[in-house]
Amino acid sequence: MSSVLKNSFNQNELDEYSSQVNQLAKALVRVPSHYPPGDTHQMADAIVNVVAGFPNIEVERYPTLPHVVNLVLRIRGNTPGKRLVFNGHMDTFPLVNQDLWTTNFKGEDKEGKLYGLGVSDMKGGIAAILTAFKFLSQNTNLFSGEVVATFVGDEESMGTEGTKWLLDNVEHARGDAMISADAGSPYVLRFGEKGILWLNLFAAGKSAHAAHVHRGDSAIDKLLDVVGELKSLCAQPIAAPAVVTAAIDSSRDLSEQYSGVGETEVLKAITMTIGTIQGGRLSNLISDSATATADIRVPVGAKTSDIETKVHDIIKRHPGVSVEVRRSYEPTWTDVSHPIIQSLVANCESTLGTRPVVNMRVGASDARHYRNVGIPTVVCGLTSYNMGAPDEHVDTHELSALVKVFAMTTLDFLTPV
After folding, report:
1. Bridge-based pairing state of the strands 57-65 and 68-76
2. What letter would DSSP give residue 285?
3. pLDDT (0 to 100) of residue 154
4. For the segment 273-313, what is each residue's pLDDT rounded down to a tens digit?
5. How far apart are the C-alpha atoms of 186 and 189, rounded to whole Å?
6. Do the domains 3-193+331-414 and 195-328 sit in the same CATH topology, yes or no?
7. Sign of the Cα pseudo-torsion (139, 142, 144, 147, in order)
8. Inter-residue contact 344 to 241 (CB < 8 Å)
9. Is 19 helix (H, G, I), strand (E, B) or coil?
């Protein structure tokens, strides 16, 4: 049993607040903040209006680009102590294939589900944080230290003007631990994620009629040769720490129910996807130029910087081909035994009735920015259904449960022993 359940606090009050979160989430879904263009001013205004009536809360705005504004919410406890940070992003995927939606993309309740664009990624998670903050703002006598929420405006564009900017410029955006409410599942808590290497590949050749191959120099052939050699990087053996491998393997059964069969092996291996490829002018003309983009994901146990070096070595062996690194960052992870993770495990189990597993994450999130500055971090968000696609939705029972999980975990972490 979570330690906070042994403490004296108004459980009925928390239950009442959690029952209100669905309406708040639906209201946030109605506020446009899709990327592109990623303008988060209206979302920031909506959140400020929500917390205007909360006691003991401090609100700060940090605009970083004309279309990007970030918020920092802060609630101080009864005595000095640790700081727990919650993180969420206000921008969402764009609306695609509107004609395929069978529900209202601006928010609709239906059979225990809440539908809407961005509800899982991640306006439902933001609503859960805000509702937990409503309870905490009225119960500051129950905890020491402080609880902070960082709501950022550019996660979909990789967070440089959102989470990373706040970490670099706002002292209290950092804390002793961080919980991200990004899309995921309270049944599968995520303690780390793979690194990323994004490449632009360019090949130059010499055009000639296809009948006269001896006079030409195919850029497409050069590019395909490079892609084939780059694919060989995926066979590189990985020496991950035993605790990471054990967590991934032990999570297999439950985690793959949510993320698909095969996730376990993907988490432990280097993977590469060629996202786009273009080249040539006519079917009977040797191509004089070709381009491609590649997405390489690097697991714990390998270094993105080492893979980048190997990429450049491969390119050097192929005259006429060049590479541009668009983005590069290392894999990150937090010790699964950290108190913030164990508290979340206990509170998810007590609230939802199922003990969650703790696993790595296949996709990217702003959690990596916190881990990169040494802050223990875990992702605990809502199970996403059809994320970024028609009829995106979440489970309303899970949404209300997440409010309780966040509030109780805060009291666990910030209550002196």
Report:
1. antiparallel
2. B
3. 80
4. 999 999 999 999 999 999 999 999 999 999 999 999 999 99
5. 6
6. no
7. negative
8. no
9. coil
Q: Is 278 in a helix, a strand, or coil?
A: strand
In angstroms, the CA 414 to CA 324 distance is: 46
Peptide bond into 36 cis (omega under 30): yes
Residue recorded with tokens 């199922």: 354
CA 402 to chain centre: 17
Classify each residue of 257-277 as buried b or exposed e, where b means 16 or more C-beta atoms within 10 Å of its C-beta. Answer: ebbeeebbebbbbbbbebeee
The pLDDT score that the predictor gives to residue 157 is 66
Supply the DSSP string of 330-352, one letter for each residue.
Answer: --EE--TTSHHHHHHHHHHHHHH
- State how far the Cα of 331 lies from the Cα of 194, in Å rounded to an integer: 4
Which letter does DSSP use for residue 211 in this model? G
229-269 pLDDT, tens per residue? 999 999 999 999 999 999 999 999 999 999 999 999 999 99
Phi and psi, residue 272, nearest 5°: -140, 135
Bond into 416 cis (ω within 30): no
Output the CATH code of domain 195-328.
Answer: 3.30.70.360
The pTM assigned to this predicted structure is 0.92
11-18 vs 396-414: helix axis angle to the nearest 10? 140
- Report CA-CA distances (Å) from 346 to 74, 82, 361, 372: 25, 20, 20, 26
Quickly count: other Cβ atoms within 10 Å of residue 397's Cβ. 12
Q: Are 164 and 369 in contact (CB under 8 A)?
A: yes
CATH for 3-193+331-414, among 3.40.630.10, 3.40.50.2000, 3.90.1720.10, 3.40.50.150?
3.40.630.10
Per-domain residue ranges for the chain? 3-193+331-414, 195-328
Using the structure block, give the residue that is written with the tokens 């402080």: 146
Distance from the Cα of residue 174 to its chain's centroid: 18
Helix (H, G, I), strand (E, B), or coil: what is residue 363? Answer: coil
Answer whether 379's CB lies under 8 Å from 369's CB. no
Dist CA 30 CA 45 (whole Å): 13
